Amino acid sequence: MIIGLDVGGTHTDVVLLSNKGFIKKVKVLTNPSDLFNTVLTGITELLKGISPESIKKIILSTTLTTNAVVQQNVNPVGIVVSSGPGIQAELFGNVKHYYKVKGAIDHRGRETENINKQEIEDVAKKLKKAGIEYVAVVGKFSVRNPSHEIVIKRILNKQFKKIFMGHNVSGNLNFPRRIATAHLNAAVYSMHKEFFTAIKASLDKKGINAPIQVLKSDGGTMSLDASLEIPARTVLSGPAASIIGSIPHAEGNKDTLVLDIGGTTTDIAILVNKTPLLEPLGIKIGIYKSLIRSLKTYSKGIGGDSFVNVQEGTLVIGHERKGPAMAFGGLYPTPTDAIVYLGMMEAGDKKLAEQGIAQIANQLNLSLDDTANLIVKTTCNQILDHSMKMVERINKKPVYTVHEFMEGYKIKVEKILLLGGPAEYLAQQIEEISGIETSAVPLSSVANAIGAALARTTCEVSLIADTEQGIATIHEEDYAEPISNSYTEKDAIETAYTILKEKARGLGANEDELKEIEVIESQSFNIVRNFSPKGKIFRMKIQIKPGLINGFEKMKFDKAALN
Amino acid sequence: MLKAKNKTGLVFFPAFDWAIDPIHPEREERLLYTQDQVEEEGIFDIEGILEYKPEIVTIEDIRRAHFCVPDEKTITTESHLISAGGAMAIAKAVMRKEVETGFALVRPPGHHSMRVSHGGRGFCHINMEAIMVEYLRSKHGIKRVAIVDTDCHHGDGTNNIYWHDPNVLFISMHQDGRTMYPGSGFPNELGGPNAMGTNLNIPLPPETSAEGYLYIMENTVMPAIADFKPDIIVNSAGQDNHYTDPLTNMNFSAQGYAELTTMLKPDIAVLEGGYSIEGALPYVNLGIILAMAGLDYSGVIEPDFNPEKLRQSQAITDKIKSVSEEINYSFQRREELRERAGEHGEIQQKVREIYYDTDNLYERQNEKIRVCRDCGGALEIDSKATPGHHILAVHIPHQACNECIETGYDIFDKADTKKYDKIFLQDRPKDIYKIKEN
Ligand SMILES: [Zn+2]
Ligand SMILES: [Zn+2]
Ligand SMILES: [Zn+2]
After folding, report:
1. Is there a shared CATH topology between the A78-186 domain and the A247-441 domain?
2. What per-residue confidence (pLDDT) applies to A558?
């Protein structure tokens, strides 16, 4: 059996699944100042009456690093960058201990300026003096040649508790994001390590020896050990968990819109062939734009608790939340009040909801029923409007080849899945307005925890082979190998597959999960100088795409399964 | 974090799957390292820099600027249409005021394409800037346009299209035609009788460095633009003046390009040539983008940049000064030059031959222009390509006077379809394009 746990802002959801289906769920209150006890309580509650040996795997999605980053409650980090020509690297540092040092690598990975050992030793002294323990070392174009980062780390080594290098965070280009990402890893490293070491020790004490996996922001999992090297990948795993949780209800041949409608916000995501779309570069968290792989989600300020009011005779569903619905003791009317008033939802005080609707009805000069219906309809309309705009934006994203321009894939939504509190009450209305088949995900209130439980291990590698320079590299995995002029795309694919599988195993993947590999990008270029061919450049990105582990396809989700 | 002072739109279309042929300078690899540099710098994360997807131009769009022979489909590929569509997407974003300025980094280039196009010349098939400008004139009420071609080659295609147009100030600065393809663009090439002095050609001696370029900008280009008062400024931003370019002999730099852009403040810039794909393009493009956005570009310096080595000689400085003075003198006397160029209503004739190096064909043109004091004048072009087609093309200019409109229709109506493979009419005031054939 598998345990999936997702820490949310107010509740922490825990589920127990077997390959026959859903077994049990538990909801406990989240204590943001003591996530350790929140997680432990959740698991303890869930396992009442269940033998610990029967647990094969535990997947945790927490808000630990997210909260720390957003609240800037993290380790002070020293950042050392080497940059070379371009935008002044001084502009990217947003920490006190930020040092730009000599050394430059160009776009093909050639050294154009040496690093200066003495300069780095001086920086080390300053960092030590300032009491810095965690350092990020990042070079421009280090994913094309990490040697400067490696040398700098070697000079700094042993003087600091942990040093993160930029080329390990991602194979993607983007120097400012590389700096931010290495910074985030260094910043959350110690708290992540302490937290999960403590969780593991406590679970061990309870006789739960199952391996622990951690959910990443791309909706994939990684082992606890692997997460220590890349702790920042755990940020914002919550929204990813929900999206993964919707996948069992999607259909392979239908592009699916996933709407997670919460109290204050609606998170919008898209599944193509049961696979969530990814951000091209990485997630944005707080002030940081990063290279942390993540699912593409779009958050809009509208939900069940949005503030409903009338402006100049028109109904407005506000972006802000002014407390809970009146039906639940709030002071202002909300879409939830309309749902309660219309009798769609059993919970809530219908009398109080009616008072709220009456306020609006008076201003609009409409009957109570018409007003409530209008509120529901307007809410759905706005959510759909935001969603379709997102689809439009994705379809309009720039492409770089004639082929993609002419024949690139265009998303066409043919199914809508709803998650979150008001989901089941809005499904019919959304289907009517959009004309698209819509359903609320069963067990929607714990879809996030189910998503965590069923998520597969994911990862990506980027290979570059340059036959003129005679080298094939996947620097993010510290892989480099000499190649000859006869190197082909097939060789590139073979190498990329081998390294990707190694990486996935390192993250804790089982052999079954290694079947879901796909080539995301493959390009080759002739290198020509003075009208004569000098070699070829191959560029390839492959991944294990986000999705579900095998063996749970037949899982039942109907309400009967709850009993 | 970083924030652009001027909201700037970018179209990036490197056409990674298209080449004239595998070892041609106009090949897949051309913008590869530029893309690397732009992505590594995180350009698209800068607040106020927006990336747009190129559009694809339509046959109607092309027909505002060109007579394509035998037709648009035959002489273009999708990549040409998307490249021109890149310029178009930027122009529209600027018109919608989503951005203040924009840069289309697209390929293949277009500034060697003339009004009549039988195929490829100097890697160009259709003229991106002209297609965009004509769209803006037809759809956005733009009347006066300045096009500044800073490519190292004479922008002879754009020059040809606006040769008779007094409402477009076309300025090309380029390596002296005696030492460089296409061998034209001398100071005495000032435009036809109706537009003399709104075509300015500024040949620069080989080994001109930033000092020379910026001198010309300050002393000739910017004063002419200030005098002309265009509604928009377009920059044909070729990058082959760079000291590492394999096809040219100039000593311009990334810093120089960025400064030039800061001076010119183009509303729309469109990439043209530039074939030093590793040593120049990544840095020059970055410099131009930062300059357009109003961001600090002082760190954009080529790894092998050596200003001492690139310094221009006194002889070059003197030569540039005298060219500048010569052109300024012509520009200031442009009204007078037009008066002397011909009598209102007379028809002037010119015969010339054009070689299409990319597609290896010859074109012979017999061009007749109606000298007109009220507009750009009705234009008739008899054009025969070998191998190829024999056509007659009639152009009625934007803001044409009634007499020139009548003259144009008269020529078109009377033209004998037995004599030509096709007869075309481009009525710019009405935005109409007609074809007659047997
Ligand atoms: Zn030029
Ligand atoms: Zn050129
Ligand atoms: Zn006229």
Report:
1. no
2. 60
pTM (two decimals): 0.95
Q: Tell me, what's the pLDDT at B157? A: 97
Residue type, B224: A
State the average pLDDT over residues A277-293: 94
Nearest CA in chain A to B287: A86
- Using the predicted structure, report yes or no on whether residue A553 has a pLDDT greater than 80: no
Angle at B4 between CA B3 and CA B9, to 5 degrees: 130
Q: Are B107 and B31 in contact (CB under 8 A)?
A: yes
Helices and strands per DSSP (H, E), number in chain B: 14, 16
Could you name the CATH architecture of A78-186? Answer: 3-Layer(aba) Sandwich (3.40)
Q: Which of A112, A174, A406 minimises the CB distance to B40?
A: A174
Residue-by-residue DSSP string for B18-65: --SSTTSSSSGGGGHHHHHHHHHTTGGGSEEEEEE------HHHHHTT
What's at B303, amino acid-wise?
P
Q: Read off the DSSP letter of residue A264.
A: S
In this structure, what DSSP letter does residue A548 have? B
Contact state of B41 with A175 under an 8 Å Cβ cutoff: yes
Residue A176 preceded by cis peptide, ω within 30:
no
Q: Please list the residues that pair with B368 across neighbouring strands.
A: B349, B380
Residue type, A116: N
Best residue in B40, B52, B53, B123 to probe A by mutation, most A CBs within 10 Å?
A: B40
Domain B3-335 = CATH 3.40.800.20? yes
Contact list, A94 vs chain B (CB under 8 Å)? 1
- Assess whether B112 carries a catalytic annotation: yes
Residue A438 dihedral angles phi and psi, to the nearest 5° = -130, 135
Residue B374: pLDDT band with limits 50, 70, 90: very high
Proximal ligand: closest to the CA of B158? 1
Please give the ipTM for the structure prediction.
0.94
**Pairing assessment for the beta strands B347-356 and B361-370 based on DSSP bridges:** antiparallel
For chain B, what are the domain ranges?
3-335, 343-436
In CATH, the architecture of A247-441 is 2-Layer Sandwich (3.30)
Map out the domains of chain A as residue ranges.
Answer: 78-186, 247-441, 460-544
Instruction: Give tens-digit pLDDT for B72-99.
Output: 999 999 999 999 999 999 999 999 999 9
Q: In the 8-state DSSP scheme, what is residue A93?
A: -
